[in-house]
Amino acid sequence: MTGTLRPGTFIRLDETAAQLGVSITPVREALLTLRGEGMVQLEPRRGYVVVPLTRQDITDIFWLQATIARELAATAIERLTTEQIDELDEANTRLAQAIADGDPAAITAAEFAFHRLFNRSTGRVKLSWFLLHVARYMPPLVYVTDPTWGHDTVHNHQQLITALRRGDRDTVVQIIEDEFADAVNRLVEQLESSGIWR
Questions:
Q1: Measured between alpha carbons, how far is 6 from 33 in angstroms, rounded to an integer?
Q2: pTM of the prediction?
Q3: Domain 55-194's class?
Q4: Does domain 9-50 have CATH number 1.10.10.10?
Q5: Range list for CATH 1.20.120.530 in the chain
Q6: Per the database record, which ranges form the HTH gntR-type domain (predicted)?
Q7: Does residue 113 contact residue 94 with C-beta atoms inside 8 Å?
Q8: Per-block mean pLDDT, blocks of 10 residues, the chain (198 long)
Q9: What are residue 143's phi and psi, to 5 degrees?
Q10: Which of 92, 67, 69 is nearest to 165 (CA)?
Q11: Rounded to 5°, angle at Cα 185 from 183 and 187
Q12: From its phi and psi, is residue 67 left (phi > 0), alpha (psi between -120 and 50) or beta?
């Protein structure tokens, strides 16, 4: 999803295992999973090759995430307690601190924690599970290393928290939609600048 491996790139089991410091078995299993997800294909006697990723593929993935997230947001407005909203506020403060510290791993963890709290509070376990699995396609380093993303995200989260406190369903859903629109635009811009579609 980041364009690091270009379409047509062959992935060698032994080289990848050595780079990651693991045996060939987990690499093979990961490639089988990626094959099932349409990210790589197996070419007989040649190995696994990266499948092209189109703008439409990215748009479709984010559309699915946004659709599930909108449904969860609509439920959250009805179910979140004051204590849960306070927890979201604290999680956003931790995210802001991670951004100030400039630690990509801490930023990724804090952003994940914020959305996990939000999604789990809805009580819609299966829908949250589906969103989690679709969200695996989001390459976090694209966002956490973007200097404007962090500030914008903390600000959007604060607006979301304010809307939750007011019980403003329309604003909550709109903020969630806007987050996904921003995410897809940032990823497409990065992939275009990387030259992946040239």
A1: 18
A2: 0.83
A3: mainly alpha
A4: yes
A5: 55-194
A6: 1-53
A7: yes
A8: 86 93 95 90 92 90 93 94 97 97 94 94 93 83 87 96 96 94 91 85
A9: -90, -50
A10: 92
A11: 70
A12: alpha
